[in-house]
Write a structure and sequence with these properties.
This is histidine kinase. The chain has 6 helices and 7 strands, in the order ααβαββαββααββ. The chain starts with a helix and ends with a strand. About 50% of the residues lie in helices and about 20% in strands. The protein is globular and about 65 Å long. Bound molecules: adenosine-5'-diphosphate and magnesium ion.
């Protein structure tokens, strides 16, 4: 009976996921079809339609790729990598976006952080997600600060701090559940993916938050043996 229950639980979760995913995919698809029809009538001077179509396509891609990571963590390919280098490239990537929103994104790192065994692509995606969430949580005088440091002889800590809206205590334990979002255009899949990626790297993700003050997220990853 216990095993049956577990199976039906899994099926229920899978069903919920599929339903949510279908819902998320259908909206941008509807919009794409509409604009394509408009284009059939007027091809000229309609760059704007192309822009919307491209961003909707990106969104579909994004949602589906988030799902693929979650569905197949065993397919991740691991290599030697370095967290300082990864965070430098993530910061460079998002600095401009932060500045456009009137926020400041900064990075600090200890010298000679040892290498880890990782999938650089997935770790980048993980930290991009955390920084994007931070940027979306801040408003006036927004600051997002990343620190890479040693948390023990064999443990590296990447801390992402923001001075954004914060998360109510009772909500913090809900984070990482699929489709939990407070954003109109959110997917509620980002943090779930973050937890999965960290878990696949044998690390830990820890969230601390105070409403009105900000959020601190620690990612702890073991150094390479
Ligand atoms: P999404 O960003 O699409 O909403 P996520 O899984 O990335 O989905 O995040 C889920 C929710 O967690 C967000 O909608 C937001 O309410 C909350 N959250 C995540 N990171 C932060 C943060 N740094 N500050 C405040 N709230 C956050
Ligand atoms: Mg997010």
């Amino acid at each position: 009976t216990e095993e049956l229950l577990r199976k039906s639980d899994k099926l229920a979760v899978a069903g919920q996921l599929a339903a949510g995913l279908a819902h998320e995919i259908r909206n941008p698809l509807t919009s794409l079809r509409g604009f394509l029809q408009l284009l059939q009538h007027a091809m000229k001077d309609k760059q704007h339609y192309f822009d919307i179509m491209l961003s909707e396509l990106d969104r579909i891609n994004f949602i589906v790729s988030e799902f693929l990571v979650i569905a197949k963590p065993e397919a991740i390919q691991y290599k030697q990598g370095n967290l300082t280098a990864i965070l430098q490239s993530v910061t460079a990537l998002l600095e401009t976006q932060a500045a456009l929103g009137g926020a400041v994104l900064t990075l600090d790192f200890e010298e000679d952080i040892p290498d880890i065994v990782c999938s650089e692509m997935h770790l980048k995606q993980l930290f991009i997600n955390l920084v994007k969430n931070a940027l979306e949580a801040i408003f006036k005088d927004g600051r997002v600060h990343i620190t890479v440091s040693m948390a023990g002889p064999n443990l590296i800590r990447v801390r992402t701090e923001d001075n954004g809206c914060g998360i109510p205590e009772e909500r913090v334990k809900q984070l990482g559940e699929p489709f939990y979002t407070t954003k109109e255009k959110g997917t509620g899949l980002g943090l779930m993916m973050c937890f999965k990626i960290v878990e696949a790297h044998r690390g830990h993700l820890h969230i601390e938050s105070t409403v009105g003050q900000g959020t601190t997220i620690d990612v702890l990853l073991p150094v390479m043996e």
